Amino acid sequence: MRAALSDLPPAEVDELLEDTEEHVRELAREHGEDQLELRLGNPEAYAAELRSAAGYPPPPEPEQPTQQLTAERGDGVEVLGLAGLTVMTASAMLLAGAVIVGAYRAQVLVPLFALSGLIGLAISLPLLIRGPGGMRAVAELPAVRALLEFREPDESTVSGKVLAYVYSLQPAWWLVRVLPVVMLTRAGLVGLVILGVPAAVISILVGHYSRVDRRLLWLVVPANALVAALLLTYFTIYL
Questions:
Q1: Which among 89, 190, 216, 225 is least buried, having the fewest CB atoms inside 10 angstroms?
Q2: Burial of 117 (0-12, 13-18, 19+ CB in 10 A)
């Protein structure tokens, strides 16, 4: 069933299967695994019922053959896209430091780091315009696959429990990352209402939809790096 739902974001699959897995295990204990398909249908059919009940579209048709796979995986665009994301993230962190320090050099550094971020975006564009196929190609890169293993931590270990707790705080982070918008405007309560509330709504929407369309990570990851660097630099210097 998990394989049949693999085109959906991992978090959405976990949510769909959260109660279902226990139900399937219970049926297997009571009636034996060889009776599961008689009672529930084959895994693909049961997964299709879950998908339909949750309002998700049918799975995409299998991609036709080798030429498209070569275009998605064999031409190095996915490597350039990942490199572009890395450049954008590093530029965002350095940009945060230049903004907070506010020294005379910032007049040169801020445009420089902003320009390098735009270069990273330009490098990533050929990948981003490919849509979901391009994202699947990135997910197949060894470095990314190694990181994806941490998306489903083993909660039987201490590190797994810590990771699971950190993931549970993600919606709270969507709100926290709008704080620099208010801090930099120095507009107090008025700024919180006029800028903070709309920024929080946008942040939550982007965070939610980035689970569905992974191309939004090219916006979310640099933005998270920028906010984290702003907060860290600010509290290190002024507190």
A1: 190
A2: buried
Specify the pTM. 0.59
DSSP tag of 63: P
Q: Over pLDDT 90: what percentage of the chain?
A: 8
CA 152 to chain centre: 13
Range 99-128 average pLDDT: 80
User: What value does the mean pLDDT take over residues 41-49?
Assistant: 81
Q: Which of the two residues, 44 and 100, has the higher pLDDT score?
A: 44
Residue matched to tokens 């275009």: 71
Amino acid in the structure at residue 145: R
Strands (E) in the chain, as ranges, are: none
- Give, as one character, the DSSP assignment of residue 41: -
Secondary structure (3-state) at 74: coil
